Amino acid sequence: MRRRIYLHFMIVTAIAILSTLFLTLFVSYDMVKEQVTEEIRSYAYLLKNLYDNEGINWQNFGELRDDIRITAVKADGSVLYDNQADQETMDNHAGREEIIEALENGEGYAVRTSDTLSENLFYYAVITRDNSVVRVSKQASNAFGLLQRIIPILVAIALLLFVFCAVLARLITDRLIAPIENVSKHMDDIESVEIYEELKPFVETISKQHQDILKNATMRQDFTANVSHELKTPLTSISGYAELMENGIADQEHTIQFSRAIHKNADRLLTLINDIIRLSELDSMQSVPEFEDIDLYRQACATVQLLELAAANQQVSIRAEGTSQTIHANKQMIDELIYNICDNAIRYNKPGGKVEVAVYRSSRGVALSVKDNGIGIPPEHQERIFERFYRVDKSRSKERGGTGLGLAIVKHIAQVHHAALEVVSEPGKGTQILVIFR
User: Has residue 89 got a pLDDT over 70?
Assistant: First the structure.
């Protein structure tokens, strides 16, 4: 980037220098042209006035200046006098444009290229009182000739300007790039870095992405550690009980007890693995899942019916109420979302408790509410219950068979559907989880 900016600066510099020099050349030529024209015009009128008022001979005019050519021409174009040539041998000048214009308008002007490409001949003619014409001409450099004369100066100036601009471009480039490079070195403390106003949206986006990458890396590291720990616990139990049974240490009564424990830990392990696989599928999902119009209330009722037996085993009642509400969503994911929220409400309830599932339309959209009167969640834990493997009471959670991933799956599904997820809870009084589909 630095090299490209510097290169662009130098290209612009070269164009600017060359354009300025050529513009200066042509402006200088115009000034020379104007000066020469004004000079010969003034001299032509001087000769006219001398001739008209004092009646001096043409031959006397040539003695005034030897760098200017003076020609006197009759009205018919024949040459009366020329201070640099023999008028007897000169062609008729009736066809010369400056003579024609002078005879018609009182004065005439023309510029012709001389025998050399670097010189121009400037002519100015005025009519006298007796209708003859006095013409004054002077040779001067044209643009090409002027360029030849001043080209060494132009080259020297161009080189000096180019060197100066090259140094200046380097300083400006470094100054432009420095804040950007500084940003790249302080991504973790972006607030302390000076940023161009125009780059703030871009830098903020990059900073956010950087923070997300770091956060995701930390989350993945924590997730791997948590998975290892969560898998290790049931596997250790299964291995321990199996070893006791293999060595014949356990009698028939303990064998049944150990078998039950092995079965329980195997079920927990299977549930944990299924939840991990599902989370991995959601994380690696490349495209938006297939959406369709579904009746949220019907799906809620079907899930409640599926969980009635599990609720009864926990001595908890569960019911659904509400009205038919259509949302555009993925049916399988919505079933998972409702199931995990309801299953969580059943697991962390108390004997005689109840779970109420409601579907209705609110001012913010279609709402799914799952409310229980269970153990509740302390305020300091409410913002973290959707984190993977996060448990309010780890020992109690494991006793109830929770994996700590159910609500993490709920959060992921809600994000896919751009749904709002809210928690209202009070310890000892219960919890309400609200999902708003906009």
Answer: yes
